[in-house]
Amino acid sequence: MSDSCSLLHVLHEDEDDRHFEMGDYQGPTARWCSGCGDHSVLAAAQRLLTDEQLKPETTVFVSGIGCSSRFPHYMKTYGFHGIHGRALPVATGVKLTRPELDVFVVMGDGDCVSIGAAHWIHALRYNVDMVALLLDNNIYGLTKKQTSPTTPQGYKSNTQPRGSYLPAMNPLEATLGVTNASFVAQTAEWVPAHLFATLKAAHQHRGFSFVRILQRCPHFTPDMYSEAVKKPALVQVLTHPEGIRVEGLEQLYPNQVRHDPADIHAARELAEDASVIRLGLFFRDESRPRYEETRALGKHTAREKIDLLNEEFERYAV
Amino acid sequence: MKLPTVGVETPTDREVSVRRVTDISVEIVSDSGEGAQKCGQIFGSVSAKMGNGVWTVEIIPAEVEPPPRNPAGASGIRIRLGDREVTNWGDETDVAVAFNEQALLGRHRLNALAPNATILLESMWATHPDPSVRKQWEEAMEELSDREYRIIEVPMEEQCLTVVDNPRRGKNMFVLGLLSWIFDRDLERARDQIGHAFRGKKAEITERNVQLLELGYAWGAEHLDFRYEIGTLEASAPMVVMNGNEAVALGAVAAGLELAAMYPITPATSVSHMLGEVFERYGGVVHQAEDEIAAAGVAIGASYAGRCAFTITSGPGLALKTEFLGLAVMAEIPLVVVDVQRGGPSTGLPTKVEQSDLLAAMFGQPGDAPHVVLAPATIEECFHVMTTARRIAEALRTVVVVLSDANLATGVAPFPRPALSPEWQAAPPDQRPIPEGVKPYDWDPRTGVSRRFIPGQAGGEHTLTGLAHDERSKVAYDSAINERSSTMRSRKLLAFQHTLIAPEVNGDAGGGDLLVVGWGSTRGAIEEAVARARAQGMSVSSLHLTFLSPLPPGLKEIFGRFRKVMTVEINYSDKKGDPFVTDHNRRRGQLSWLLRATTLVDVDCWTRVLGEPLRPGRILQAIRENMPGGTR
Amino acid sequence: MPSDTSSGNGVGGVVAPALEALAARLDAFHSAVATAEEELRSFVAHRRGASEYRAEQALVELGPFAVGKIAPDRFASILLDLEELTGEAEQVLDRAEYILSAFATERDMHVVTVEPGGDLRDAVREAFTQMGQVFGAARAVELARAGLFDPDQHNRFLSALPFRKWNRAERQLAPPLVVELDPDDLLPTGLGEFLDGQVKIVLVVRGMTTPAPLARLITPGTYVVQTADPADLTGLAVSPHPGIALLFDQERSEQARFLHDPEAGASPWERLTIRHLPDRPEVGRGRRPPRWLEELEHLEMLARRPSTDTLPGTASALAGEAGTAPAQTAPVDQLAAWLLSQTNVGGG
After folding, report:
1. Domain boundaries, chain A
2. End-of-domain residue from the set C84, C105, C132
3. Pick from A58, A118, A313: which is nearest to B456 by CB?
4. Residues C154, C170 within the same domain
5. CB atoms A8 and C40 under 8 Å
6. Which residues on neighbouring strands pair with residue A63, listed in sequence order?
7. How distant is the Cα of A77 from the closest Cα of chain C, in angstroms?
8. How many contacts (CB atoms, under 8 Å) link B and C?
9. Quick one: pLDDT at residue C13?
10. Is C142's CB within 8 Å of B395's CB?
11. Which fold would CATH assign to domain B240-418?
């Protein structure tokens, strides 16, 4: 079967000599609380798109429900603000059938780690080429301070006023345990250079890039990372030539550890140890199979499909 | 023909009666794994090729491998033959072949056998070395003796052992031979079909099965004293024969659908099996998602991206997809959902038919979520419905739910081979730039329809949302905007309703005593019952609905021409006369609820949830019981 | 081996097999053009006098299931979104259809002859510019269908479209090209600018050339082959990379035969297979021009596995390579090899 396709539809690029500035990706002013970590992520994403010169019309941001899921509304690209916990299946459907689109997924901790946890696990396994951002502020913000799976044990909320009963879930540990996970990184909204470098590495990775972004909710969890923000020693940066490299970061964050992102065992050990906040690339393996490639749609014309279907009918003919 | 190619003549000293029939049902029942279904399928195909109308239904136990010789584990197939098109599985079975008396007992207890049925029964159990088996046999014979069955003992195993070592793997073809003699089937066609059924296997296997076929034929010719003769119809067009799930799968390809997202669920799964086998050769992808919700999500993502996707499920899965269906309606994303209905609620009767998802399919989504619900009535319609459903979903930018059911899913019947058209297939995603000023929800105030934006279209960048939104897709909690957008989504359905044609009355369009209204897979059985009732002089007609949401025009007017209107459905309703039941509190059949609410006509209902397709005879009885009293 | 049967031209006997070897690419191109034309024709048929055919169109699109259930005329007037064509759009589409149908089966334009003394690069550029009409026509169709065609701005699409204006998708569908020319006119280095997407060029030359004219076109992402056997061109046609071939009319010991396949490895010496290398001409006699020598040296340099202990920075480029110790090579060659391994010009 020839891989025939029409000249029409594939040729919309039209000698693209457009150059995009930050402003070309900026939608209306974001309506998050001032001091919310979402603002930093939005700025980093807009910078990334500018840096990579992604076309607004072929870039899709998919989100679920929550504060951070308003994200696509503040971008001037295509966006899909769907339902709680289900951003990943939608994004999978988009990328599976239109692999030429650049797909980003923005989820909160409730979205990804709680109601959408099944999709999260399986999206890692599908390894569809997209960037998945977990904007983790350890609390449900939009619905006004309920415990989330990543809320630290003992932390008080409106649903668990005597403090969270269970140990917090560690998304990195979970992610690194999933077969076929291919890119796992952690960064923090208060280290913008590292945040940007991480988004860039995630975008350049071919496969499902999972990035957990630690962030503060100035309204409900203002104290969550205040120590870490004040004392850089509490933050350890993973470094490696193959990892996320940020020039000059060692001056601000001298607490560094060398970690080869090809080493899954070391990655798991580092993720498990909660004594320090670690930023960097925990694991990357580009050789893992990507679902949208193993399951790519064919390119048959209507006529070819009819011919094949007619052959199939022979099996049912009486 | 006038065979027998196996060289056996009927002994002249034996009187063989030949009964001429226009319609007859045959059942073959066995333990699971003895190949009764394969035997029936070949018998059905040969009959279809010879020009008979055919409808076959598999008899499937709920377990994969139920214990052997167990009335509840009967596995098998019913084949109904006619001298014209057969549209349903009929009433009781006239001829049954049973591989053991317990399977037969199972059918007897379900009243599947005609009171005077002729039964060919494996004889080995009567003299089985195990006394408990012999005891079971005796008890079964005792129980069966309360009907006028004619039971003929056939030494199936003994005969098969002359050809094969393991008779478990041969009885079915021996039985095919028996039936071929009884019904005067073309042996050459039977040999062809055996070759087809065992293609890909070793040649010896086909040879051995042909030997068994001939053995059965010869045994019949030598020992049996009855045969049937059934007329045939001239096939005017080339035909294909398949079940409803196969038809849905091939119809999806013909409709240009490219992605089937699903999660395994009975009885829908065989569509995915079929698609998994053939779909991908056409460039389609079957995505087996992690759950029912994700299957809906992936299909919606693909549709949003401009590709044509559908998801297929059954009742429990439909419940899980509910939130996503609401999103697709709200954000105006085209989506086709196939629901192969089974018995409910909850896990219910996984392998058995019911029509109980109608109201859930229409009203299951919280909030007002207007969308299209339609139901194919035949296996042929299962094929063609996919093109129409896809086209409507795209034209209206909304959800179209297709309600099939376990009866269509497993029923096999021939239908005219479709003349495929490229126009049935979806166009590739529109990637033309969006002219300035066009908005993603530029609702046409007349129709509520707006142009679909697809990622890749420059100038169309916007964020789609399940929140209330204005024409630009901006989140808007403003009350006027919410009222307007709700109106627009509803108006699409009204505009579409305006394109529907009033359904035709089967019988007297001018009116009469009773109008039977049905929907979905029951059409064949209802129309057969109505024809019989009319032949008996009853003034009864029927009306069959394809579109349930929106309903076609003209119903109230049609209903007005009849003294009584009654739905016939396979779902639950309280029976008049049962404790506490009054006309006021009675819970009714689902279509009847809908018709009463929309037409204000006092629509009665007769419904059953027996876990099997409706039998025309039962419907006929219901018609008789429900004829309005007095004369007109 | 050369015969003059297929054309009056001296290399005609090699041109036909060369084009045949590119059949897969030619088919892909023709099929894309034909599909676009078919789509355009049905689009125009639907839209032209749209009001007349609307009901029929609705009837066909809805399929047999809808017969007797949905009124096609009402469906068409209420829900079928058919914009009528403006006269201007019709003209554009007619012209585009004419262009597409002309190219759907066209073969002659895929063969170009460079007149003796002519410029190879100009000839290739001109051929691509002419064939670029199909891409221009497709763009015009998209614009006209969207109601965005502006004659002042877009009329140029209905004539030739130079290669440098082709976008990524278009370069992937690039028409294959066979160029016949005299040995003296074989200056292929200027062709580098065209080696992008899925461009495939076969140069057919009769007579003696320099030993490795294509050596300088070898980059990590380009398929390059010199051969006298048309069967060797199969790899060129199916390679996912842009590629160029030099097809000799016969085997001569003075002409190098080699294959550079980007898929064959990460290093130049893994990708390059030399099947025949001419003897080095004697230097200093002044009988051979310097080009001879340069080409051969370049080819040999690419084929050589450099040692790992010389330049700083080469170590990372060679990481993972087995440490076999090749003969000492000049540092400048190693630098060139390293630079080459770091570039990705023309890569798919």
Report:
1. 23-314
2. C84
3. A58
4. yes
5. yes
6. A81, A106
7. 20
8. 74
9. 73
10. no
11. Rossmann fold (3.40.50)
Residue of C60, C79, C147 with shortest CB distance to B395: C79
- What is d(CA A124, CA A88) in angstroms, rounded to the nearest whole number? 10
Tell me the ipTM for this assembly: 0.95
Give a yes or no: residue C70 inside a domain: yes
Residue C74, chain B, CB below 8 Å: the answer is: yes
What chain A residue is nearest to C143 in terms of C-alpha separation? Answer: A12
pLDDT over 50 (residue B186):
yes
Is the Cβ–Cβ distance between B56 and B41 less than 8 Å? yes
Q: Are residues C80 and C90 in the same domain?
A: no
H-helix or E-strand spanning residue A30: none
Instruction: Give dist(CA B605, CA B611) in Å, integer.
Output: 18
Instruction: Kindly state whether residues C100 and C221 are assigned to the same domain.
Output: no
CB contacts of B281 in chain A (<8 Å) are 308
pLDDT of amino acid C1: 38
Q: Do C138 and A8 touch (CB under 8 A)?
A: yes
Q: Which residues of B touch C (CB under 8 A)?
A: 255, 376, 381, 384-385, 387-388, 391-392, 395-396, 418, 421, 423-424, 431-435, 447, 449, 451, 495-496, 498-501, 503-504, 546-547, 552
Nearest by CB to residue A93, choosing from B302, B414, B422, is B302
Structure-block tokens of residue C264: 């064959």
Tell me the pTM.
0.83
From chain B, the residues in CB contact with A55 under 8 A are: 458
Instruction: Give B-chain residues touching A306 at CB under 8 angstroms.
Output: 254, 420-422
Q: How many residues belong to chain C?
A: 348
Cβ atoms B593, B359 nearer than 8 A: yes
Nearest-CB residue to A15 (from C31, C40, C165): C165
Q: Are residues C117 and C199 in the same domain?
A: no
Decide whether B240-418 matches B512-626 in CATH topology.
Answer: yes
**CA nearest to B87, candidates B533, B621, B616:** B616
Residue A239 in 3-state DSSP? strand
- Is the domain of C110 the same as that of C221? no
Where is the domain boundary, C151, C175, C199?
C175
CA nearest to C38 within chain A: A6
CATH architecture of A23-314: 3-Layer(aba) Sandwich (3.40)
Give the confidence band of C346 by pLDDT, cuts at 50, 70, 90: very low
Rounded CA gap, A6 and A24, in Å? 31
Q: Which two tokens stand for residue B483?
A: 């009222």
Tell me the C-alpha to C-alpha distance, in Å, between residue C308 and each of A242, B72, C305, C319, C328.
22, 77, 9, 9, 11
Residues C31 and C123 in one domain: yes
Of all residues in chain C, the one with the smallest CA distance to A2 is: C28
Choose among C316, C307, C311, C309: nearest CA to C266: C316
Q: Does A17 touch chain C (CB under 8 A)?
A: no
pLDDT > 90 in chain C, percent: 27
Task: Give the residue from chain B lying closest to C138, CA to CA.
Answer: B432
Q: How close does chain A come to C30, measured CA to CA in Å?
A: 9
Residue-level pLDDT at C282: 55
CATH fold for domain B17-230: Pyruvate-ferredoxin Oxidoreductase; domain 3 (3.40.920)
Give me the domain span that covers residue C72: 51-84
What is the domain count for chain C?
Answer: 3
Question: How far, in Å, CA of C133 to CA of C126, rounded?
Answer: 12
Question: Is the residue at C344 inside a domain?
Answer: no
If DSSP codes are grouped into helix, strand and coil, which group holds residue B609? coil
Q: Where are the domains of chain B?
A: 17-230, 240-418, 430-499, 512-626
Between CA B597 and CA B582 the distance in angstroms is 18
Task: Give C142's contacts in chain B (Cβ within 8 Å).
Answer: 431-432
Angle subtended by helix axes B244-254 and B379-396, to nearest 10? 40
CATH classification of B512-626 is 3.40.50.970, yes or no?
A: no
Task: Please tell me the distance from the alpha carbon of residue B613 to that of residue B343, in angstroms, as a whole number.
Answer: 11
**What is each CA distance from B387 to A230, B240, B286, in whole angstroms?**
62, 18, 18
Residue A6 confidence (pLDDT) above 70: no
